[in-house]
Each structure stands twice: as C-alpha cells, then as structure tokens.
Design a protein that fits this description.
Largest sheet: none
Radius of gyration: 21 Å
Number of strands: 0
Number of domains: 2
Shape: globular
Distance between the termini: 33 Å
Number of helices: 15
Length: about 350
C-alpha cells in the first residue's frame, strides 16, 4: 500500500507541476475575460457560502426536532432518526468549510461546534447529577459541546439507553448541545445577512483581491485538511488501530464521509462559486487542467466508504484519492495562485477557520 502511494503521489504532483512549467505567465489567447473577481465573490457568497450556513442551521433544527420526539417517546426507531439527523449536521458543517472566511473566523465557529470533545468528559457529565441544561452545558466548556459531543452522546457507550426511558438525562443533554450549536451557527449566518456579504464583495479593506486571496487560501486549507490531516494518515497506516484518534472514526464510524463533505465544499467554490470560471478566463489551459484535477479527485473521493475502518479493506482506493486530492492542492497552491495573483498564507492549525 505504501509503495503504491509513493508511486502515485509523485507522478500526479509532477504532472501538475509540469503543466505549470509549460504555461506562459500571460493569459492564453483564447482565455475568456468575461469573468471578473467580483463575479467570483458574488457567486461564492450568494450561491455557496450563505446557503451552506442556512443548511447548517436547518440541519440543527431538524436534529432538535428529532431529539424532541426521541425524548418524548423513546424508541429504537426514534433513536435511529436522531442519528440520521446528526449525520446531516456533520455533513452540513463540513459543507461550510471552504467558504469559512469572515464571521466563521471572527466568531471561532469551528472551536465552538467542531472541537474534538472529550469522551471521558461527556461520560462523566452524563453519569453525574449536575444540570445538563443549555446554560449549564455551555458553562462546562468545549470538551462537552459541539458536533463531536453529539456523536459521542448519540452513538457512544450507553447511547442505546436513548431508546428507553432510562435515556432521559442523556436526551436532555443532547438537546442542550444541539441548541448551542444551532445558536452559534445562526450567529454566523446573521453576520452574513447583516453586512458581511457586501463587505466580502466590496473587498476586505476595500480591496476585492484581498477577499479573493482569503477565499482561495481557505479552499487550499481545506484540501490540506483532507490530504495531510486525513487521507495521508490512512495511506501510511497498516491498520485502523495505528491511527491517532483525530484521524480515526468516531463512534458513528463516519469520518471519511466527513472528509468527503469537506472536499465537496471545495468543489462548490470551484463550480457554483465561479472560481473555476475565473481561472479559465485568466488562462484557458490552466482552467482546463484544474477542471480535470477537480473531477479526478471528486471521482476518487466518491469511491471511498463512509468509515475509516472500512477503508482499510481497499487501500488502493484510499491511495488514489489521496494522490488526486494532493495533485489538486498542488495545482491550486502553485499555478492557479500565481495566475490569480494570490498571496498564500498559513493555515490556522487550531481549527478556527
């Protein structure tokens, strides 16, 4: 498996870079100059970013409704409905990631709803007698809040008691965590409606190129997350047991589905957000190769299972996905960034972007 990865990665990366070396710095003669930076910012805001936060808030609302029904009438069927609703929240959150500029950063949304909650802290809280109201859980800190905490509560040890009256305390806790996540997401959505959408389009500090820089950097960060902080670990491990906890499945066995959704947030900015069209307008050859690289990565990611553990049954598919995502990342961070005049930054490793 490792040998396959080492063979695929250099070949794909070199193919990308070879294309970069053959292109002139000037746009190709047949480049379409009708797409401008402002078009990307408008499309990204209106067709991708704002709808993604609307979907996130809606997914929290649907989880809240499912939990209300579960708490009122516990049953295995109601529990499974709530678990399905959690999966939708997890995917909706990841779909916001490539557009996570502005309010998501200033409000530290990732730290609020996507912090790696501690199973021991959640279990201790559930086993105790302290209040699990919304205010009390909020005061208990990040270790017992967010999407990961919801996963622990809905899928972890003891979660089957949610299907019976014995799960009342756990159900109240999950309802509180959901409400907190919904409120934090709604705050970010409100910021976009209350003026940040216009600020992005007019340009950070009055410069639309600064907004484009921030957006392209965020796209590259999310590819880095999918590659360096996700798929690469799978190609280098012989078994799931060798993975660090952050790279392995949670109790829902859904981590690869989350990585796939992160990648889908990238393609949303490329496609619906018109970034692909801007690259094509700048240099038609680069745009064509970008489209091919994105399609290759999308096909490879779609072939992966939802579960990290299950992926070890087909390591070649994981290696192909990792190599394809890395090739796209290289193309965006080198040739595309150069074509668009992007100033590259460093990804904030604390996960607050």
């Amino acid at each position: 498996m490792t040998g396959l990865r080492r063979a695929l990665v250099p070949l794909l990366a070199l193919a990308v870079l070879a294309g970069a070396c053959t292109d002139d710095d000037e746009p190709a003669d047949d480049a379409d100059t009708s797409v401008e930076v402002e078009d990307v910012l408008v499309a990204s805001a209106d067709d991708v970013i704002v709808p993604s936060y609307e979907a996130l808030v809606t997914s929290f609302d649907e989880l809240s409704s499912a939990l209300d029904e579960l708490c009122a009438a516990p049953s295995p069927e109601a529990l499974e409905t709530a678990r399905d609703a959690w999966r939708e929240v997890a995917i909706a959150w990841r779909h916001t990631r490539a557009g996570g500029v502005g309010p998501a950063m200033t409000r530290r949304l990732a730290a609020t709803i996507a912090f790696a909650a501690r199973p021991a802290a959640v279990e201790e809280l559930l086993a105790g007698s302290d209040p699990v109201t919304e205010a009390a859980v909020d005061a208990d800190g990040a270790g017992v809040k967010g999407i990961v905490a919801l996963e622990i509560g809905l899928f972890g040890d003891g979660s089957d008691e949610l299907a019976a009256a014995a799960g009342a305390r756990r159900c109240e806790y999950l309802t509180s965590v959901t409400a907190l996540g919904r409120a934090a997401s709604a705050d970010v959505l409100a910021d976009w409606a209350d003026g940040y959408r216009d600020e992005l389009i007019e340009g950070m500090d009055g410069d639309p190129q600064a907004s484009l820089d921030a957006l392209v950097n965020e796209v590259i960060f999310r590819l880095t997350e999918t590659d360096d902080q996700g798929l690469r670990a799978l190609t280098e491990a012989a078994t799931a047991e060798e993975l660090q906890p952050a790279r392995a499945d949670g109790p829902a066995a859904f981590h690869l589905a989350e990585l796939r959704a992160t990648y889908e947030s990238v393609t949303a900015i490329l496609d619906e957000g018109e970034l692909q069209s801007l690259v094509e307008a700048t240099n038609a050859d680069t745009g064509e190769r970008l489209a091919e690289a994105a399609d290759t990565a999308a096909e490879a990611m779609a072939a992966l299972p939802d579960s990290v553990t299950a992926s070890f049954d087909d390591p070649d598919t994981v290696a192909e996905a990792q190599a394809a995502v890395m090739a796209l990342k290289v193309l965006l961070s080198t040739e595309v960034a150069s074509e668009l005049g992007i100033t590259l930054g460093f990804s904030d490793s604390d996960g607050d972007s």
